[in-house]
Amino acid sequence: MRLGLSLREVVRRSLKLVAERGNREFGLSRAWLADIEKGMFVPGTYKIASLSTIYQLSIAEINRLYGFERGDIVTRRPLFRPPKTHLIESPEEQDDLENPLRLEDVLARSGVEKTDLLTRIVDIWGDVPVPLLRHVDLRRYLYAYIGTTDRTMAPLLPPGTFLQIDAKQNRVRKGPWKNTGTHIQFARPIYFLDIRTGYACGWCDIKDGILTLIPHPDSGLSARTFRYPGEVEIVGQVTGIAMRIIGEEFEPIGRITGQTEAKK
Predict the structure, then answer these.
(1) Average model confidence (pLDDT) for the chain?
(2) 241 with 163: CB under 8 angstroms?
(3) Is the pTM of this model over 0.70?
(4) What is the signed CA dihedral for 135, 201, 153, 121, rounded to 10 degrees?
(5) Residue 16 and residue 18: Cα distance in Å, rounded?
(6) What digits encode the pLDDT tens for the residues 36-84?
(7) pLDDT band, residue 214 (cuts 50/70/90)
(8) How many CB atoms within 10 Å of residue 205?
(9) What are the distances in angstroms from CA 70 to CA 36, 100, 204?
(10) How far is residue 85's CA from residue 201's CA, in Å, rounded to a whole number?
(11) What pLDDT score does 60 carry?
């Protein structure tokens, strides 16, 4: 009624979408539209896309018609933390209207231009520590998450830790590593690896074409070896971390500078 569209015209426009996308799922029929108006069922993904395009509504507005508010998933997803270590992808474009974080003001102050990374952190932790926002630089660094079942670097980097990775530092540096007291465990570079079947994080050593992934001595795990570079790729060096330690409190650890110092 607002747009002056008849059911016949809506059907006609949906057929144009079918032709443009080459997918019949975008098509709408008069009977289907009548059933939707009667509340007989909820439209699926393709149909919602068609309705959004034809009626000039955002997908969030359509979802709201069915009692699904923006941010509903984010408030529940911290219960389902990923078990495997992985890189956090950040798309080139992010629709702020669809963003469930409502962190626009904080992001503006911190200089962060994209929010997908923060969305994923909220999905896992439930909220975002402000000190972490100040160090997020998506143009310079990659970011990753240590899965709930990955204890390779525990207790130094326990499961649930977020990593900042400098992809330019993708060659394993050789020791010896000097004992500098409390920061001895950060004296040796920590690397993030693509092991083809997933990702891994730890100390590394390369000799005679074999890369050895060295776990933390207190993890209880054994070292793993890979043919280099056939079976493993060095994504980059871990240069910063952020972790949760006690209850709901955060202990953000800033950039790991040089070879021996970790800023707290």
Answers:
(1) 76
(2) yes
(3) no
(4) 40
(5) 5
(6) 989 888 899 999 999 999 988 888 888 888 887 765 555 554 545 678 8
(7) very high
(8) 15
(9) 22, 6, 43
(10) 8
(11) 84
Which of 42-51, 61-70, 89-98, 198-207 shows the lowest mean pLDDT across its residues?
89-98
HEC states along the chain?
CCCCCCHHHHHHHHHHHHHHHCCHHHCCCHHHHHHHHCCCCCCCHHHHHHHHHHHCCCHHHHHHCCCCCCCCCCCCHHHCCCCCCEECCCCCCCCHHHCCCCCHHHHHHHCCCCCHHHHHHHHHHCCCCHHHHHHCCCCCCEEEECCCCCCCCCCCCCCCCEEEEECCCCCCCCCCCCCCHHHHHHHCCCEEEECCCCEEEEEEEEECCEEEEECCCCCCCCCEEEECCCCCEEEEEEEEEEEECCCCCEEEEEEEECCCEECC
Amino acid at 68: F
Around Cβ 35, how many Cβ atoms within 10 Å? 13
Place of tokens 């790729």: 233
Q: 130-137: long-range contacts (C-beta < 8 A, 24 or more apart)?
A: 130/106, 131/242, 131/250, 131/252, 131/254, 132/162, 132/242, 132/250, 132/252, 133/106, 133/107, 134/110, 135/164, 135/240, 135/252, 135/254, 135/255, 136/110, 136/112
Structure tokens at 107: 């992001």
What pLDDT is attached to residue 186?
77
More confident residue, 40 or 110: 40
CB atoms within 10 A of CB 69: 11
pLDDT of residue 90: 55
Average pLDDT over residues 163-192: 79
Q: Is the per-residue pLDDT at 27 higher than 60?
A: yes
